[in-house]
Amino acid sequence: MLPILKKECMLFESENMTKSEIMQKMVDVFDREGYLTDKELFYHDVAMREELFSTCIGFGIGIPHGKSDAVKEAGICTAKLEQEVVWNEETGDKVDMILMIAVRNKNDSNLHLQILSKLSRLLMHEDFREKLKNCNHEELYHTLIENLEV
Question: Choosing from 44, 65, 112, 137, which is the catalytic residue?
Fold first, then answer.
């Protein structure tokens, strides 16, 4: 069984990317680290979810997620971007912090809701958001591990 968060699933990106490029890169990390059985299907499921309603929650943060048959193990992949990316074409909202959640379609019926709920409560606090955005790789990992016990 894989942990929900691994250091290898934390990206710090300096190059300018589109929303779809960063999402694909995060899906590739999930796949490389053993969380997926089918990365194309998972990307499709996350992209379809994103089309229904943008996962930009404000404050420069996006939480793309998907329940998918392509997920072997639940996980979180993070990306801190040096350059903001447009996350919602309609509103022009941009993000520079992304927390992608992968959950199996079956057997984890409410795990994604538990993770989303926990993240949402934490992200309501400015000090937590600032800590996420201003910390280094090691600090980000420990901050999330300490706060995301689900």
Answer: 65
